[in-house]
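For reproducibility, we list the full input for the FE2/S2 (inorganic) cluster complex.
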Amino acid sequence: MASTIVAFELGGREVEVMVKPMTTLQSALRDQLGFTATKEGCRQGGCGSCTVLVNDEPMLSCLLPVEDVAGQRVTTLESLTPTQGLHPLQQAFLDANAFQCGYCTPGMTMLAQALLDHNPAPDRGDITQALTGNICRCTGYGPIVRAIEVAAQAMHAGEEGQPR
Ligand code: FES
Ligand code: FES
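The corresponding predicted structure, in tokenized form, follows.
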């Protein structure tokens, strides 16, 4: 089948990819654009390692045809990471030892960002519920939940310090 060009916004920049029909966003990000922070776990929607934000909503990029994000705003961990230092979520994951192999971490981080966008002060139950679809095979969820709690507090405190 013929390839088509799909244009979308990635981390504030317009990008274009030439893809065959049903190419996933995950594949376009990793294989064509070199955005490899988005991980490739099960490729079946079962692990969450490929989670990205589309218009600030968490989506599984392994299930999403890239044509579906034409004209949309896609955010990956590369876009979340500041040019210097770490995002509060990244810092909190580091401080809480919330990863071992780290393969699940980008997806966890993107999901946590979406949660905090909607609910800046989630309780432990909110966080646990939000993480339901994201699998960590080696760390256990306690440190991950704690990291998100700490990041939420840090981000909340930062916002309160901002001039209005
Ligand atoms: S790689 Fe997408 S859910 Fe596992
Ligand atoms: S840190 Fe290894 S899968 Fe989560």
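Residues 88-160 form a domain with the DNA polymerase; domain 1 fold (CATH 1.10.150.120). The longest strand covers residues 4-10. Both points were considered when choosing residues for closer inspection.
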